[in-house]
Amino acid sequence: MSGAGGVVLQALYLVAAVSFIVGLRQMSSPVTARRGIVWAGIGMVLAFLATLAWLAPARLALMSAALLLGGGAAWYAARRVPMTAMPQMIAIYNGMGGGAAACIAVLEMSGPGGAAALPFTVLCLALLGALIGMVSFSGSLLACAKLHGWLSRPWVFPGQQWLNFAVLGGAVLLGLWLLLAAGEAGGGWLLLYFCLLALAYGVLMTLPIGGADMPVVLSLFNALTGLAVGFEGFVLDNAAMIVAGTVVGAAGTLLTQLMAKAMNRSLVSVLFSAFGAETAAGAGAAGEMRETTATDVAVLLAFADNAIIVPGYGMAVAQAQHRLRELADLLEKRGVRVRFAIHPVAGRMPGHMNVLLAEAGVSYDLLSDLDEINADFPNAEVALVIGANDVVNPAAREDRGSPIYGMPILDADRARNCIVIKRGRGRGFSGIENALFYADNTRMLYGDGQKAVAALVQEVKALE
After folding, report:
1. What pLDDT, in 10s, does the model give residues 43-93?
2. Distance between CA atoms of 222 and 270, rounded to whole angstroms?
3. Residue 291 gets which letter from DSSP?
4. In this structure, what DSSP letter does residue 446 have?
5. Per-residue pLDDT tens for 285-334?
6. Residues 352 and 313 sit within 8 Å (Cβ to Cβ)
7. Dihedral angle at the C-alpha atoms of 261, 272, 166, 96, nearest 10 degrees?
8. Which residues are catalytic?
9. 11-44 in b/e burial notation, b at 16+ Cβ within 10 A?
10. Residue of 38, 84, 87 whose CA lies nearest to 359
11. 23 contacts 36 by C-beta, under 8 angstroms
12. 304, 460 in Cβ contact below 8 A?
């Protein structure tokens, strides 16, 4: 678009882009994250309205219908989804973003004149966006299925990596063929095969990835979706898409690196080692698990000087965060210093524990990251672990044969007393034995997380 209208449109896109950046900056802290989401939402609405305002009337009805349909479905789903299913919802939305970017590329390449009508550079970017977007689409949907428990274990078979490379290589070769032979007969079939191979690669690369690596994989797919949107922004000459996609891609890439670092693993290891496929890896733990009662734990907590609570995904599954905040409030009234230790990869997505505890009304001042709180565990009277497993497993620090050796952990085992609330005696999601459960200073409180914490609340109240 040229003229004054074009200037106004680009100015609105610039304002939207600034809103995205401000929003993303504020999402870096739990204190300002809610405000950041509002800023990013304002930017998205502004970019969408600006696009509608300069749209041809013939397309306005279609765009409005798409907005009502997609926005309505998202609004309904967001209001009904439980917090434990938030990672699955994010995986679906992320996949939708990648799929939408890929669809833009396909439509541009199969429109009037086909791929031959596009300049060479634009065609390159369209193909890159289509490849990345489709990988992100199919991979995110499979990640959602794994997070939801429909596929509980990594799928590994002989020659899997060679097959993956062959499928990816085939997609790249078809992309090059489309690039060099644009406009020739049969281009439609080439584009179809290219899309199918890209979709297949997204599935194949996600199949061997275990549940413990899902936070890293979600971050990676988020980065891929951002890049795909940015590439298609160049194809459509849409500044808002370019900026938003680039920002999301860069942030997702950095987050992926940080998450992999928090697990002391390389991205290559996450993608190709099938972590979690071997359930008997690592040395077995010696000793026995010692059971305790809610009454004994309540007395220990009520008369402690300080206590550190370590939440994990089990807390999310049990929806115990509200009871946990009630317990922390009771202990603080008795003069116990209470803090929450948050591991970077606790849960099934980055920041999962922070979101759940914030929902329950736990003050941000009580939350401490691994680096901030690990030195305080030896001075803690009690470490209360609820639903956490690998992130407190001493094998990561001591057992060189363990698959998680080298991963930074929360040193709950170094507290004077450690209480573990756990549903049963089985191994965790990754299938690795946890030496913490057998330590001399550890006692196990078995049962549903929410019911166990509710019992602790009642017992502490009875001491008043």
Report:
1. 988 988 888 887 777 778 888 888 889 888 888 888 888 777 778 888 899
2. 16
3. B
4. E
5. 667 889 999 999 999 999 999 999 999 988 988 889 999 999 999 999 99
6. yes
7. -60
8. 390
9. ebbeebbebbbbbbebbeeeeebeebeebbebbb
10. 84
11. yes
12. no
Question: φ and ψ at 365, to 5 degrees?
Answer: -65, -20
Tokens of 405: 């050796």
- Residue 376: how many CB atoms within 10 A of its CB? 17
Lowest pLDDT segment from 46-55, 147-156, 359-368:
147-156
Residue of 140 and 240 predicted with greater confidence: 140
Residue 279 pLDDT greater than 50, yes or no: no
3-state DSSP assignment of residue 160: helix
> What would the two tokens of residue 5 be?
């209208």
Using CB atoms within 10 A of its CB, is residue 342 exposed (0-12), middle (13-18) or buried (19+)?
Answer: buried
CA-to-CA distance for 381 and 384, rounded, in angstroms? 10
CB burial of residue 148 (10 Å; 0-12, 13-18, 19+): middle
- Coil, helix or strand at residue 382: strand
Tokens representing 294 are 């809610």
Question: Which residues in 402-440 are b (16+ Cβ under 10 Å) and which e?
Answer: bbbeebbbbbbbbbebbbbbbeeeeebbbbbbbbbbbbe
Q: How far is CA 272 from CA 47, 205, 234, 275, in A?
A: 39, 8, 32, 8
Rounded-to-integer distance, Cα 298 and Cα 364, Å? 24
Query: Could you please report the per-residue DSSP string of 250-261?
Result: HHHHHHHHHHHH
pTM: 0.78
CB distance 289 to 323 below 8 Å: no
Query: Can you tell me the distance from the alpha carbon of 166 to that of 152, in angstroms, rounded to the nearest whole number?
Result: 26
Element (H, E) at 310: strand 306-311
CA distances from 253 to 144, 220, 247, 260, 278 (A): 20, 6, 10, 11, 28
At 113-130, the pLDDT tens digits run: 777 788 889 999 999 999
3-state DSSP assignment of residue 153: coil
Distance of CA 294 to the CA centre of its chain: 34
How many alpha carbons lie under 13 Å from residue 414 in its C-beta half-sphere?
12
Structure tokens at 301: 């907590």
Q: What is the rounded distance in angstroms from the CA atom of residue 257 to the CA atom of residue 89?
A: 22
User: 311 - beta bridge partners?
Assistant: 386
